[in-house]
Amino acid sequence: MKINIIGGGLAGSEAALTLSKKKIHCNLYEIKPEGNTDIYKSKNFGELVCSNSLKSFELSNASGLLKNEGKLLDSNLLRIAEETKVPAGKALAVNREEFSKRITEEIKKSEYIKIYRKEITQIDLNSDDIWLIATGPLTSPKFESWLMKVFGNDLFFFDAVSPIILRDSIDTSKTFVADRYEKGTGDYLNCPMNENEYSIFYEQLVAAELAPIENFSDKALFERCQPVEEIAKRGLDALRFGPMKPVGLKDDSGNSFFAIVQLRKEDKEGNLYSPVGFQTRLKWKEQKKVFSLIPALNNAEFVRYGVMHRNTYLNAPEIMNKYMQSKKYKNVFFAGQISGLEGYVEAIVSGKISALNIERISTGKKLLSFPDDTMIGALINHITTNARIPLSPVYANYGLLSPVKGIKRKKERNIAKAERALKVFKKFLITEFY
Ligand SMILES: Cc1cc2nc3c(=O)[nH]c(=O)nc-3n(C[C@H](O)[C@H](O)[C@H](O)COP(=O)(O)OP(=O)(O)OC[C@H]3O[C@@H](n4cnc5c(N)ncnc54)[C@H](O)[C@@H]3O)c2cc1C
After folding, report:
1. Which run of H or E residues covers position 388?
2. Which domains does the chain have, with CATH numbers?
3. Ranges of the chain whose pLDDT falls below 50
């Protein structure tokens, strides 16, 4: 019996390193560098395709709780994220090159992981091999067709990535350094705009030409990752309540502004920045034209332009059980975005859970499902049991956890849910896990 992991992204890399640490051999199949889409830029494992942020580490934020749970499970990728982090206020942001380089080095170094740089187009379901499907939102078309034939109902949505800008091309005389509500260590570069600058920018943005996409439907846009031009189309002020929100940001002289674009570091040295919330589907020449209307970006040099992509996932409630295992084929497991979990940390932690269950099935132990009052348990429970069919992708959020009574303020309620979750999680690790 062999263990085969398909996809060396976030979920697949976490799974391979998890099995390796348990001295279990596995094969890791990765289509890159040949044959995958233009969105992947590196041949390394664990590539971050868009933002370099793994979101907040605060417990009042659901992603912060999920990270804490991942760390309690000894997540390899979350450890590497900590080791390659760049300053980003209350968020865990990483140097993306360094992050995936370190993951790749650990995978290559392992005597338990055999790497195959090739596309998997189908699986022999009758063999006694175990398979982990972690091919992500950009699963190769041939494998996607096979998945559709076997598991049916393949679903999709569209989302986009933000551009990346060279620091030396930013006019820093027109920026100021600050974190919103001064929460952080001054990690964001803010590009302020006055009312006149904003309205010119707005008009050009809503009029700009979009890049054509095959079979595109705006009904299939992911609601949490709306392109900046789509947000703008909701009305003149929509961006000022979204990615260009000026509240809580003042320059050194205490001045407030009409609108602000925040730039986040892409690397520790701060040579590259990306505008927060500026994922876009505009044609590249339009991005250059419109984003250069932001005063500090008048001469901006774009090292990568934003692009939009189709994201594939499966209808988990019909095909998966709470162990991240196929209901029909017990030797097939899923992890990451293909399972309907959206987000970097969600992919990492689900890769961990699937690998732990693969280890258990291969050593004859009972499979594990995590308690519903934990974030990872609630996420898996949602996609496999509670979600409406067809599934909409889900990311960590406190709405998934049962209510705590008697606390009025949302932030305190969330922290109370997080504290309860961590207590349940730790108890589960002691009583069920080992
Ligand atoms: C354009 C885009 C932007 C995103 N931006 C963000 C963001 O900013 N923040 C966030 O939290 N989440 C984001 N996501 C969502 C999601 O968190 C990431 O896509 C995440 O990388 C998913 O992890 P994964 O392991 O499931 O897939 P991936 O990390 O994409 O890994 C899948 C791997 O499988 C390989 N592969 C595919 N098909 C085959 C095959 N047939 N055989 C062998 N190998 C194969 C791929 O080359 C890839 O390396 C984004 C998704 C997309 C598509």
Report:
1. none
2. 3-160+310-433 (3.50.50.60), 164-306 (2.40.30.260)
3. none
Phi/psi region, residue 324 (left: phi>0; alpha: psi -120 to 50; beta: rest), is left
CA–CA separation, 101 and 94 (whole Å) = 12
Provide the 8-state DSSP code for 193.
E
Nearest atom (ligand 1) to Cα of 309: 1
- Nearest CA, atom 30, ligand 1: 136
* Entry field: residues in the chain: 434
Report CA(339)–ligand 1 centroid distance (Å): 12
DSSP string across 93-160: EE-HHHHHHHHHHHHHH-TTEEEE-S------TTSS-EEEE---TT--HHHHHHHHHHH---EEEEEE
Compute how many other C-beta atoms are within 10 angstroms of the C-beta atom of residue 24. 17
Closest by CA to 139, choosing from 47, 15, 35, is: 35
**pLDDT score at 36:** 61
Looking at residue 213, its pLDDT comes to: 76
Pairing of strands 3-6, 26-29: parallel
CB distance 239 to 231 below 8 Å? yes
User: Does an H or E element contain 422, and which?
Assistant: helix 410-428
Residue type, 376: I
Provide the pLDDT for residue 335. Answer: 98
Helices (H), 208-296: 228-232, 284-291
pLDDT at 383: 92
Report the separation in Å between the CA atom of 139 and the middle of ligand 1, taken as the mean of its atom positions.
8
User: Mind listing the pLDDT tens digit for each residue in 336-364?
Assistant: 999 999 899 999 999 999 999 999 999 99
The predicted-structure confidence for 353-399, as pLDDT tens digits, reads as follows 999 999 999 999 999 999 999 999 999 999 998 887 778 788 899 98
Q: Which atom of ligand 1 is nearest to the CA of 48?
A: 21
Pocket of ligand 1 from Cβ distances under 6 Å: 6-12, 29-32, 36, 39-40, 49-51, 119-120, 134-140, 143, 159, 161, 309, 311, 336-338, 342-344, 347
Q: What token pair was written down for 52?
A: 């370099």
3 state SS for 13-72: HHHHHHHHHCCCCEEEECCCCCCCCCCCCCCCCCCCCCCCEEEECCCCCHHHHHHHHHHH
